[in-house]
């Protein structure tokens, strides 16, 4: 079964200590353990007499934005991530997967980075703006421009934004809404004057 049909759990995950990882499901959103949260693997805990490729009991991850209870005073941002079991019923039968809700995250798509605040970023906005505002989303993930590197882009990449169909539609819609607002204000003012 593909991971998207198993709540984001991958069939196989290769996770070494020191690896950058991302959570693939919401575990405890109010403290920062949500789908897309990133961190670094500090340790991997196995049962006695077990080693890779066995599934560990837990992977200890240092999450930068974790705001929950401390599991260790020495490492207050570290959280044990345990395997999750997900089941799915399809025409082909009943499927079950037990896996860690993690995947490697040395890089993220711009869409996956939405809502995150990153300490540093190396940004490649691509050759064209397929979705209006995606470049802004990428650049606004960091608190200061000094903490990001933006891959070089062509002048045509920047100027093509003006002629994109999506931008033209948004400008026309904004104009339509402004005209509607003006007409509404005029109607309210006429009504107000008559009473």
Structure report:
This protein is an alpha+beta fold. It folds into two domains: 19-104; 110-192, no CATH class. Helix content is 25%, strand content 23%. It is built from four helices and nine strands. A five-stranded antiparallel β-sheet has the order 4-3-2-1-7, with no helix packed on it. β5 and β6 form a beta hairpin. The radius of gyration is 24 Å and the shape is elongated. It starts with 19 loop residues before the first strand and ends with a helix. The model has no long low-confidence stretch (mean pLDDT 84).
Top keywords for this entry?
195 residues; five-stranded antiparallel beta sheet; 4 helices; two-stranded antiparallel sheet; alpha+beta; 25% helix; 9 strands
